[in-house]
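Why show two proteins at once? Because comparison is the fastest way to build intuition. When a single record is shown, students tend to memorize it. When two are placed side by side, the eye starts asking what differs. So, the first record is below.
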Amino acid sequence: AALHRTNLPQIRIAPGDAELQRVGGAFGPGVILVSKLREKSLRLSAGGAGVKVLLYEGGEALRFDEQAIDAGVKGCLRVMGATGMIADPPRKPDLPQTSLSTASSWVRAPEGGILHTIRRTGDRVGQKEVIGVVADPLGVQSTPVVSEDDGVIVGRTNLPIVNRGDALFHIARVKPVTGAKSRTKPEFADALYDEDEII
């Protein structure tokens, strides 16, 4: 993730590619984000050369996050197994069903102050659910931080002091991939944001 933010281990794939979705599912992430290709990006250039790309994101900038590293290494080995490069890849983790997202949004600070988070990265949240509180330094006044959508928290700020309008929680609107019953709204068509687009 960007500085002072953390990301849930996740895979991003180009839209409209069933093979990428299959291989992304083999990786075993909690969430697969279908994300448009950006101009001058490695994913766009590779796609133009006929190379399919899975983009893995996880953890926090400038830190070794052992869980994100472990998820990345084992996910790569499972992708290698799914594409016939190796035998006996690691088993998929005993996690909830991988979810597919075609849209996400950032919940921003309604006021400046001290952020107290209630929900963590990876948590499922409901529309209108309180996921944090911004309080003044003396704790006299507080303003709830409310999720605008049903989804999964795939990123959040690590800074305790926030200004009005700062990006706090990144929520991917999801539905389960293949098989599991959906507890959320159908897919949405608007674009996902990259880290450098939300500051």
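Second record. Ask yourself what differs from the first in the token line.
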Amino acid sequence: GTAVVGEENTEVCRATTLYAPTGTGYSVQANKGEMIRLYIWQSLLPKGSKTSNNPKLVNNLFNNETIFKGFKGTDPTQVNNDPANMNFLFWPGTGCAHLSLHCGIQQPGQNFGVHTHPISEELFIGVEGKGQVHLNGEWIDFGEGDILYSPEKIFHGTRNPYTGPEAKRFVTCGGPVPYDINFYLMANVSPELK
């Protein structure tokens, strides 16, 4: 398919991600008879918020340009010996003023550490494979197309508990709203709006 965000036109494939800042028009069209599944993540930009003059509008879930590596989590009850990587896709460093979108890729046996956000809520979307999502002390089976909401201050994380020759990667996407400045500081990238 194709998408238009503001003045930018792009071809849409399975892992395409789009960012339409408040007030920016967008459209997505299946123009070859294909089916397109859209997840729309929306939040009002608080009054007085800084905005970017040149935000990144198109990305891909598997873009590993900015990776958060080695995060073991902040929940002392959870052990994480094999931390998964997370791609930062839309965040202050790409000109995203309020929302964030990250992609977690858990190879067999890996997990992205259980943690909380002090002032942010988060939504998880299952993109590929199967694994589990942690929510407030419980691990829940999770797969492609599943969606889970975590309120602020609630422990959450993801893992791929499957191992062995048949095990496949488990991919999720989500992002705290408003973005959590602590994630960018822990990843040693600037949390400043670009």
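One difference worth noting in the second protein: The mean pLDDT is 94.
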